[in-house]
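Deliverable D4.2, example record:
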Amino acid sequence: MTLKIDIDAGAATAPYEQVRAQIAGQALSGTLPVGYKLPTVRGLAETLGLAANTVAKAYRALESDGVIETRGRNGTFVAAAGDASAREASAAAAVFAERAHRLGLSESQALAAVRDALRASYGDKE
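Output generated by the structure prediction step:
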């Protein structure tokens, strides 16, 4: 998965708003998962051919909305959205995904492990 942003120079919408809306949409749809590391402001600005201040303004708006979070020098990441239980579940899923990756599991093996755990907790209701 990668961040995909298309800027329409002829659009009535300001470029910073286009960046903000596209990142927010991808984060809320799950295209960009919780914990996804976003490019630096300068890096994204260079890639998109925008001024760094334009991308910085979009990032500030996204952070204000709770869509992303900045972790100091570690970078900027997609934040968990929703209520506390959803945030906790997202955080647990991110920890599991990192651990599964470190263990060398494929995505399908990791998903199978999650499905098995869910069936064990919820029962076979599907």
